[in-house]
Design a protein that fits this description.
Helix content is 93%, strand content 0%. The chain has 81 residues and is mostly helical. The N and C termini lie far apart (109 Å). The model has no long low-confidence stretch (mean pLDDT 93).
Length: 81
């Protein structure tokens, strides 16, 4: 009887080990996938930061053009001074 219980315990332990190995494999896969997502998000963040800088530069340039246009309109008498 003790031999059967030992075999049962060993069988259960083997099943638990197999389950644990499957979980560890899936965890390793998830770690790789999360790392990939983080890398892609970092690249998107860098691209968005570059776009933000470009938009700020365009805004500053349009402000300068607007002030120059105001001066031209005043010189030509197209608006009230």
């Amino acid at each position: 009887m003790a031999d059967q219980s030992d075999n049962l315990v060993l069988t259960l332990l083997r099943d638990m080990r197999a389950s644990l190995q499957r979980v560890e494999g899936k965890l390793d896969e998830l770690v790789v996938r999360v790392s990939s997502v983080e890398t892609n998000l970092a690249q998107v963040h860098v691209e968005l930061a570059g776009i933000h800088v470009d938009l700020a530069a365009h805004s500053a340039r349009m402000d300068r053009i607007d002030s120059r246009l105001d001066r031209i309109e005043k010189r030509l008498g197209l608006v009230d001074a």
